[in-house]
Amino acid sequence: MDTASMVFLFSLTLVVCLRLSSPQQMPTELHNITEVLYLGSPFVQEALRRAVELTDAAYAHTNEKVKMSLSEGSVRPSDLLAQFKQTGPQTRAHIRAAEVLDNTVELIREMVYTHTHAHNMTMPNLTELLSAQDFETIMQASGCSSEMQRPICETDCLSDRYRSFTGQCNNRQYPLWGAANTPYHRWLPPEYEDALGAPRGWDPEHFYHNATLPPVRCVSQRVLYTHNENISLDSSLSHLLVEWGQWIDHDLGLTPQTPSTAAFRTGADCSRTCTRDSPCFPIQIPLSDPRTGIQSCMPFFRSAPSCVGTLPTRHRREQLNAITSFVDASMVYGSSDQSAADLRNLSSPLGLLALNPLHSDQGLALMPFLPRRQSHLDPCGPRPGQNTSEADTPPDEGNMTSCFQAGDSRANEHLGMIALHTLFLREHNRLAQELQELNPHWAPDTLYQEARKIMGAVHQILTWEHYLPRVLGEEVASELVPPYEGYTPQVNPSIANAFATAAFRFAHVTVQPVVTRLGPGYRPSPRHPTLPLHNSLFASWRVIQEGGIDPVLRGLLLSPAKLQVSDQMMVEELTERLFQAQGGLPFDLGALNLQRGRDHGLPGYGAWRRLCGLSDPSSEAELAAIMGNPTLAQKLLALYGTPQNVDVWVGAISEPLLPGGRVGPLLACLLAKQFRALRDGDRFWWQREGMFSRVQRTALQSVSLSRIICDNTHIRLVPPDPFIRTRRTEDLLPCTHPLIPLLNLSAWREPDTDPTCGSIPRIQPGYSLLCDNTVLYQCPLGFVLIGPSQVRCDPHTQQWKPAPPTCQDVDECAFSPSICPQNTQCHNTPGSFTCTEPGLASLSASSVAAAVVAVLGGAALMLLILTCYRRFFPMKSEHLWSPCCQRKN
Ligand code: HEM
Q: According to the model, what pLDDT value does residue 219 have?
C-alpha cells in the first residue's frame, strides 16, 4: 500500500473513530515510522475497549440465559455439551484474554474494511495498520501477554521425581510443551477460509479445489448413519477396549468451547439462529433430513481460541488444550493445582482422594458430588421419560444426587466413564494406603504423589502395551512405535490438533448402541437392565440407585466392541440421540466431529495422506482403490466433489482396517505419531532411567486392568485379558488366579540405611523422604521444623550433614491476636490447642477426668438405688421385665 492511500485510509478510519470515541480519544497524529503510517494508539485503544465490552456482554448474556433455562427446569443438549466441556478458572481466564484479542483484531479489520471496501481499496494487512507498540499494547491489555509467560521451573530433587499438575516444566527448555491451557500442536498448517481463521465452510458457497463443502449433517446421514440393530460385533475385542480409548482421550485433550453462546456482535442466541456469526457456527439441517421442521439448524459453538505466539506474524486462530497432554492420569487428579487440591482429602494423613460422604457402593467408595447450582435441577439426575425399567425410580427429595466431581469435566458423560473414574479413584486410595503401611514415615503429600506416580505408570503401560497393539495391530504397532530408547527433549509431546479433532475420534464408530449391565455371576438382572446408550448419558444417579459400578464393568468386560464396517459406521444412538434431554434437538456426534474439524481449519483428507507418505487420491477410481469400496468412494465423491476436500475424520475412518488392527493406514500413521511423541517427549515416562528402580519397573510390568477391577470392586471373576472379548463366563478366572497377578509394592519400601552414611536419620514426630542421596523433612500440622529441611550424605566424612532437624510443637496460644474466641482460654496441646470457658480453664486435665468419673459414678449409684427400689416396690401396672431383674410372679 502506498503512502497516499494510507493517508486516505487514515482519514477514513478517523471518521470511524469520531463515531466511536469521545473527543479526547481521537487519534491526533499519524505515527510515521520509516515511511510506514500506522492507525495510532487511540484507534487501538478504542478497538480494545469495544472488544472487552462485546466479549463481556456476550458472557453475561450467556450466564443470564443459563440461569433462566435452569430456573425453568430445562436442560438442553447444548447445556449438556457445555457441562461436558466445562473448564476451570485458569482456562476461562486464558479464553477471555484470547477472545478479547481476537475481537480487537476483528474490530480493527472490520472498521478498516468497511472504509477501504467502500473506496475500492485492497484490505491492508495487520502489519501495515499497527505498529509493534500497538501489537504489544493489544497483547498486554487483552491479558494474552501474561497468559503466555514462560514459567520458572524448579530444579530440585522433587521436581525430577513428580510431575507438575499443569504439565508445565516437563520439558525444561520448552516448559509449556504439553502443558494445560496451551494451543494444540499443528502437524500441518491450518487451512481456514480467511486470514483470521473463519472455519472451512463458513460460507457454504466458498470453493475448495473447485467444489463447495457439503453440509456435515448430509455426510452424517448418507455415510455414517447406522440402525442400532444393524451392527456387526467385533469377534475378538471387548467393549472395555473402546472405553479405555475414551478414558485415555480424557487424559490427553479437552478442547473448550467459547463460554459465550451468544453472537459477539449481535448478542443473538446461537441455539436459536441459523446465522453464522462468531462464535455461532450452526449445523444446517438439510431438507432431506427427517428432523426438518423441528429446527432448521443444530447449534454449534466454535472452539475457544487461544493466545498464540506474538502478533502479528503468528496471528492465526489456534485452539486450546485445557488439560495436560501427557498420559499422567490427569482425568483423576486434575490439570491445575487448584483442582488437584479440591479433589484431595486434605485432612487425611494418608494422602487420599476425597470420597462421597453421602453414598457408597455397597461399602466401596464413590466420587464426591459437584456442588449443585440449583437444587431442583440436576443434569445428572433422571429425566422424564428416561425410565426403562420398574427399577427406575427417581431419587426421592432427601436423597438428591448430583454430577460426580473428578479431575475431568467429562466424568459423568456416560456410565462407562463414571465406572472407570470410580475404579481409579479407589485404586489411588488403595495404593496410598498400602504405601503408608510400607513407609509410615512418609508425609501425606509423599504418599499422594507416589500413588499418583504409580497411577501414571499404570496408565502408560496399559495404553502402550495392552491397548495400542490391539488398535494398530501387533505388527504395525511394533513398526510405528519401536521400543523405547530414552527421553528425547527435542520431541514436542503436545497433542496435535488433528489427533484430538479427527484421528483419536476414530473410536466413535466402535461404540455400541447399548450399555450392557450384568449382575453377580454376569447374569442379566432386572435391577439394572441393559440401557440404550442415550439413557446412560449424564445418568450418575443410576450408579447410586442401580447397583453401583459393578454391573457396568461386568457389561464392559463381557460385551464385544462394535466392529467398524464401511456401511455400518456410527450408530443412530450417537447420530440421532446424543445428549437427548428435556427439550431441544438432540445432537449428532458425526456431524459434530466434522463441523469441529472445519472449525479448527483441518486440511482435507489428501493433505494428511501426503503427510504420512501415503498415496494422495485424485479421482474416484483412486479413492475406491484406497477404500477398497467403490460404493463408499462414490458416495463420498457425490458429496465432496473431490477426494481433496473429504473431511479428514470421515476419510480416515472409511479406510479398510489393517491386518489385526482396528484402523486403516492413515489413522495408524497419525495415532502412532502422537503416541510416539507422548512417550519420547515425556521426561517422566515410566521406563526412563531414574524414574523407577529396576525392581519397581519389573513389578509394574505385571500391572493388569483385571487386577485393578479385582482390587477395587465386588467382582470376583475376571478375564485374564480384559480387552479381549470373553464369549463364555466359564472362561473367566477367579481373582486369586496366578494370571491375575497382584501389584507387589514391596519395592517401594524405602531403605532404612544408606550404603555410605548408614542409618537414615528419621525424626519423631515428623516425616522424611529419601530423594537421591538427600533426606527431606516435613513436620505434621501444628509443628514447626527447627533446623535444616534436608540433610545429605557426605561421602567423605560418611556422615549426614548438617545435623537433622526436629519438629517443635507450635504454641498456638502465643499467637496475637488470640486464636481462641473472646472470653475463652487457650490451651496448647502437642500439634494443636483447645479453647475453654474461663471457669473450666483452671482445671487440669486430671482434675477434669476425676470430675467426670465422679459424676458418672454418682449417676450409676442413683440408677442402682432406683432399680432396686422398683424391684421391691413395683408399680401396680408394671411387669418386671427389666433386664437386671428376674421375672417375679
Ligand atoms: C459413548 C461413547 C462416546 C460419546 C458419547 C462421546 C462423545 C463425544 C462428544 C460429545 C465429543 C465432543 C464433540 C465436539 O463438540 O467436538 C467428543 C469428543 C471426543 N471424543 Fe468422544 N465420545 C465417546 C467415545 C469416545 C471414544 C471411545 C473415543 C476414543 C477412543 C473418543 C474420543 C474423542 C475425542 C478424541 C474427542 C475430542 C476431545 C476434545 O478435543 O475435546 N470418544 N466425544
A: 97
**Strands across the sheet containing 799-801:** 767-771, 774-778, 790-794, 799-801
* Ligand 1 atom, smallest distance to 245 CA: 30
> For position 118, what pLDDT does the model report?
53
Residue 268's pLDDT is what?
A: 84
Give me the residue spans of the domains in the chain.
1-382+403-602+661-749, 605-646, 751-809, 859-889
The model carries a pTM of 0.88
10 close to 39: Cβ distance less than 8 angstroms = yes
Quick one: three-class SS letters along 583-649? Answer: CCCCECHHHHHHHHHHHCCCCCHHHHHHHCCCCCCCCHHHHHHHHCCHHHHHHHHHHHCCHHHCCHH
- pLDDT given for residue 883 in this prediction: 31
Q: Which residues pair with 211 in a beta bridge?
A: 208
**Continuous H helices in 198-272:** 216-219, 239-252
Measuring CA to CA, which residue among 111, 213, 182, 97 is closest to residue 144? 97
pLDDT for 376 equals 56
Residue 597 is predicted with a pLDDT of: 98
Q: Cβ(339) to ligand 1 under 6 A?
A: no
Helix axes of 705-712 and 415-438: crossing angle, nearest 10 degrees:
80
Nearest to 102 by CA among 58, 151, 149: 58
The grid coordinates listed for 745 are: 509394592
Instruction: For residue 359, give the nearest of 300, 298, 442, 418 by alpha carbon.
Output: 418
Which residue, 76, 73, 476, is CA-closest to 271?
Answer: 76
In this structure, are residues 181 and 350 in contact, taking their beta carbons and an 8 Å threshold? no
Q: Which residue numbers in the chain have pLDDT < 50?
A: 1-37, 388-398, 841-849, 851-852, 865, 867-889
Residue nearest (by alpha carbon) to ligand 1 atom 26: 246
Distance 424 CA to ligand 1 centre (A): 20
CB hemisphere CA count around 90 (13 angstroms): 19
User: What would the pLDDT profile of 537-560 be if each residue is shown by its tens digit?
Assistant: 889 999 999 999 999 999 999 999
Q: What per-residue string of b and e applies to 593-621 under the rule 16 or more CB within 10 Å gives b?
A: bbbbbbbbbbbbbbbbbebeebeebeebe
Closest atom of ligand 1 to CA, residue 242:
27
Q: Which of 508, 510, 564 to mutate to test the pocket of ligand 1 (most atoms within 8 A of CB)?
A: 508
Neighbours of 350 (CB within 10 A): 16
For 554, the grid coordinates are 461386568
Closest ligand 1 atom, residue 85 Cα = 41
The CA 230 to ligand 1 mean position distance, Å, reads 22
Fold of 1-382+403-602+661-749: Myeloperoxidase, subunit C (1.10.640)
The three-point CA angle 102-322-100 to 5° equals: 15
Question: Could you check whether 1-382+403-602+661-749 and 751-809 share the same CATH topology?
Answer: no
**641 in Cβ contact with 210 (< 8 Å):** yes
Q: Which residues are catalytic?
A: 250
Q: Which three cell numbers stand for residue 270?
A: 446461537
**How many A from CA of 507 to the centre of ligand 1?**
8
> What class does CATH assign to 751-809?
mainly beta
- Asked if 357 contacts 368 with a C-beta cutoff of 8 angstroms, the reply is yes
Instruction: State the Cα–Cα distance between residues 332 and 708, nearest whole angstrom.
Output: 15
Distance in angstroms (rounded) separating the CA atoms of residues 647 and 654 = 11
Angle between helices 620-627 and 630-640 (to 10 degrees): 130
Q: What angle do CA 119, 123, 126 make, to 5 degrees?
A: 140
Compute, in angstroms, the gap from residue 538 CA to the centroid of ligand 1: 14
**508 known member of a binding site:** yes
- Pair 467, 461: CB distance under 8 Å: no
Site to probe by mutation for ligand 1, drawn from 505, 538, 575, 599 as the one with most ligand atoms within 8 Å of Cβ, is 505
